[in-house]
Amino acid sequence: MKKKQVKLNRWILAAVLGVPATLPAWADDAADIAALKAQIQELDQKVRILERNRELDQESATNTAKTQPQITVGANGFSFVNFSGTSDTNFAVGIHGVLQMDTRTFGNDDHIPGSSGLLLRRARPILSGTVYRNFDFLFVPDFGNAAPGNTSATPTPTIYDALINYRYSPALQFQAGKFKAPVGLEQLQADANIAFNERSLVTDLVPNRDLGIELHGDLKGGLLSYAAGVFNGVGDARNTSNYSFQDNREFDGRLFAQPFKNLGQPALKNLGVGLAGSWGSSSVTNTLGLPNTTGGSLAGYATDGQQQFFAYNPLSGQVVAAHTHWRLSPQAAYYHGPFDLLGEYAISDQGVANGVHSAALENTAWEISGGWVLTGEDASFNGVIPKHPFDPRQGNWGAFQVIARYAELNIDRAAFPYFSNPATSASGAQSWAVGLNWYLNQNIRADASFSHTTFSGGGPSSATSAPGSVSSHPEDVFFTRLQLAF
User: Fold this and answer.
1) How confident is the model at residue 47 (pLDDT cuts 50, 70, 90)?
2) How is residue 379 annotated by DSSP?
3) Which residues pair with 94 in a beta bridge?
4) Which of 96, 373, 431, 479 has the lowest tally of Cβ within 10 angstroms?
């Protein structure tokens, strides 16, 4: 009987596995056949259940893997992403950074003490991310030479950006916090991607970062970009002091179009033109509404070398910002293959007062800059990515770009003498600069450039402090930079 059961089990197993087998000769009565079929069905059902459980386990493992946090490390920084179980990202955090080590070497000895030498121009850890799929955030402090021209041994760390952005769609976004005002084209370019060590004279006349709320977006894939917002209002080239210094607000806006972007014309695809501006009015006289104090102790305008050539420094009294301040900036950029060109014009109509004297000073500036990537890579508003990153063992040297720029800034003649001393402050500056940028890879860049600036009017050769000591003779300065950006 035992041998019979063993043979029966073997036959059942063969039947379940689909192996051909003949019914045992002894299983010829109805009871034996019914018993065999019942056991076969029972075992078949158990096998099907095991197979289905295995499939469910595999599906569960796959779904779990999709929702597990993912860590990415690469040329674009460090990112931590947690998926919601769909193709959308629910939560993401990115860690980036910019580190710039500069040198400035002036061609003469009578420049502002401390301006020539080594400096840590920027040291910025950058934290960005997304929460609940559509809410983005950005936080950027600076531990470097936070204020241009700052000769302090211990510069004060500064918060440069701190914002939250709601992204309903690429065409409709809303952000609030501290960020760049949407006016200057060159100012809006990321600090890690500007062609020269310092921005041009035209950027002296536009706001830097301000506290505000802004509606912005890109229509038709960037065919038209817009931004409009309400801000506290800051003086030319200033960063906000994180509080309001006036009762009224400033309105900033910008339109930028790339009309040929989607028309299949490669030569015109990356041609963009725009118009930006701001308008604000203050019922409270103040000095914070005047330009930045870069390179000096009073509000004024600075050169490529961050030395002040104009200041609101009348012989008597104190100049304050008063009444209205508006700006207008037509701008354009063009990129085609290794070639790039950027042009910008700015008007800053500044209301000022000094005792019984008041005026609306219309200061203007313009610039045109261009470059050519010698190694053939494409130039862009966001920099150059080498096709062959630096690796001398493989004969790869990265990408090289030559750059050139001309810029002018002119002060309204009505500024003299009640608001500025013509014996020390220049009424205009004209600057040309050339340079070579070396992109070793996507993250490392080395720059060298030379800038020459001349002045209209200004101080005597015997002047010993800015702006007189700066405007009394041309400024020649050689820059270098080693940059890490990721």
Assistant:
1) confident
2) P
3) 79, 128
4) 96
Q: Report yes or no: 284 and 246 within 8 Å, Cβ to Cβ.
A: yes
Percent of the chain that is helix, strand, coil (3-state, to 5): 15, 45, 35
For CA atoms 72, 383, 372, 145, the dihedral sign is: negative
Half-sphere exposure for 420 (CA within 13 Å, toward CB): 31
Provide the whole-model pTM. 0.83
135, 321, 337, 142: which is closest to 234 by C-alpha? 321
Q: Angle CA(281)–CA(282)–CA(288) in degrees, nearest 5? A: 115
Cis? peptide before 467, omega within 30° of 0: yes
Q: What are phi and psi of 50, to 5 degrees?
A: -65, -40
Beta bridge partners of 138: 128, 163
Amino acid symbol at 108: N
**CB 481, CB 446: distance < 8 Å:** yes
DSSP conformational letter for 8: H
Residue at token pair 């076969």: 40
Amino acid at 251: F
Identify the pLDDT of residue 156. 76
**Has residue 18 got a pLDDT over 70?**
no
